[in-house]
Amino acid sequence: MLISTTPTVEGRPIQAYKGVVTGETIIGANLFKDFMAGIRDIIGGRSGSYERVLREAKDTALAEMQQRAQEMGANAIVGVDIDYETIGQNGSMLMVAVSGTAVVI
User: Do 49 and 25 meet the contact criterion of CB atoms below 8 Å apart?
Assistant: First the structure.
């Protein structure tokens, strides 16, 4: 399935609009990752453990949205938007929400 942030796909006209589709994921970060990220803040560098969690949450939300689009008979999703938020006590949880328009191209 083609997933695009643009509202159209060049050279592939949209034949039918199936509707809005979404995917959501909420994932927690553990205490060890928080501790290591704090050290990274002090000494500099990237936090590989947080990057992996972020990537996992995004991929899961996109897969959920794609599944919903397939159930609607779509073969593409256009106009995709990805939002990241921290939620929970002290921002201990990461929420990724994706949305787009399921279409047939």
Answer: no
Question: Are residues 62 and 24 in contact, defined by beta-carbon separation less than 8 angstroms?
Answer: no
Backbone angles phi, psi at 11, to 5 degrees: 80, 0
Q: Is the pTM of this model over 0.70?
A: yes
**pLDDT tens track of the chain, all 105 residues?**
999 999 999 999 999 999 999 999 988 765 445 544 554 555 555 556 677 778 889 999 999 999 999 999 999 999 999 999 888 777 678 889 999 999 999
Do 98 and 80 meet the contact criterion of CB atoms below 8 Å apart? yes
Which residues fall within 8 angstroms of residue 51, CB to CB, at 6 or more apart?
Answer: none
